[in-house]
Amino acid sequence: MVIQDISFVSAPKDSASIVVGVYAGGQLSSSGLFFNDKFSGEIEKNIKKIGFSGKLFETTSFVSSGDVCNYVVAVGLGESRKSLTGFELKRLGGSIYDAAKKLDTEVVVAIDDADLTTTGSSAQLQIAFGALLKSWAFDKYKTEKKDAPKLSSIYFFTSDADSRQKDFGKYRNIAEAVFLTRLVVSEPANVIYPESLAEIAKKELLPLGGKVEILNKHQMTVLGMNALLGVAQGSENEPKLAILHWNGGTAHEKPVVFVGKGVTFDSGGISLKPGEGMHEMRCDMAGAGTVLGLLKAVALNKLPVNVVGVMVLVENMPSGTAQRPGDVVKSMSGQTIEVLNTDAEGRLILADALWYAQDRFSPEVMIDLATLTGAVIVALGHEFAGLFSNDDTLAEQIKKSSDATGEKVWRMPMTEHFNKGIDSTIADMQNIAKPSVRGGSITAAQFLKRFVNDVKWAHLDIAGVESTNDDDLFICSEGATGFGVCLLYDFLCNACVK
Ligand code: BES
Ligand code: MG
Ligand code: ZN
Question: In what order do the strands lie in the sheet with 5-9?
Fold first, then answer.
């Protein structure tokens, strides 16, 4: 389900297959030349014969004619002195994994830091990280693993094997965290429901020194979380609020708070969704899944910062006890909401979770992640998450981390026009905009903004990016992407660690 072994070696392995880097124009990288000499020039000859371009990310492979190794995979490194971004290096790792996965059980990668230019940390580490991320697949329910890849070990050839191996630990931890997010997002709703997901959070974080509180329905009732409870009331599965703590900073430092939408299944409620595609709504807890993965990454790497993760967990179902369109609820903040559409449930549960989080933790910053609207997919496709914020500096910091990690965000506007669109005639607000006001993702964000007080806040609408149907997504196979874990981990390291 994921590559077993990624390690760094300073002596070449006999009989494994070999991956060499080729620049645009056809020259081998210096580590590649080392192997070419060992093979009496065979690699270079073959690359010329095939006419391999060396274009960045392109790969080709051929059987080795000698008995020194099984296969040779050539991967394009592009223009030789062009600096590659962290994301390009990860993507290179993904291409290498894909080119080699069916060929052999083990490969040696002959691309070292000296072969590439990058502004970030070790190029080889980033390549290894990308290969690891690409190798994860959700195959646990396949009783026969017919198409399973052969490849089980990748050895990176380097003169610096020991220190590189040690430094890779940090990346492996982040990958483990991404895999946790991908796993819980992929699992169906008969496995992942509020209680089971809250238990997973405990099981994952307690052994790492994190703390986990789980609020039940009674506690939420006492707190007055009626917007959240209204969504949950049609389901047999009780809602939970899982609060994850990582206290890596000093006691007086305000925490960075992440809030994740965790609708473990969104049928739409009484405003029922059409049947076609409804099964995809098992992924409607991706925001909460990302918060969980992020906290795991932070705890594994022991980041020196105080972080709180709030997973707001409910199931949105139609039943005799379900909330009706037109019901009015009083949120924890005291503001009243007319629920005109029970399928606009994400903003209702987040209203109480955001209010609770800012009220209890006085965050330094608060960021929520939610598969909030179909409209964000209309606007930004599956390429960008929608970024909304009440603070330009915060938005810039998130954009920087987005550029570094390749998890793309696009900032969207928030203005009074959209804010007015959710004023209700009988309550303080309604949960969908008046028909004349379009821009569904913006009105949803304006709704959330009414519950953040004046805390610095950003909202990521991840409805279009939490999963992919595209097997060619470079560092992720088809299915859950784990979007947000690397992005927000980078944000914590660069904008929050003192
Ligand atoms: N979970 C959905 C949003 C969604 C749609 C996520 C498609 C992923 C893919 C959300 O709860 C929802 O149903 N939103 C409605 C809002 C509408 C009723 C204002 C939508 O987008 O249709
Ligand atoms: Mg919905
Ligand atoms: Zn939803």
Answer: 5-9, 153-157, 106-110, 17-23, 71-78, 59-63
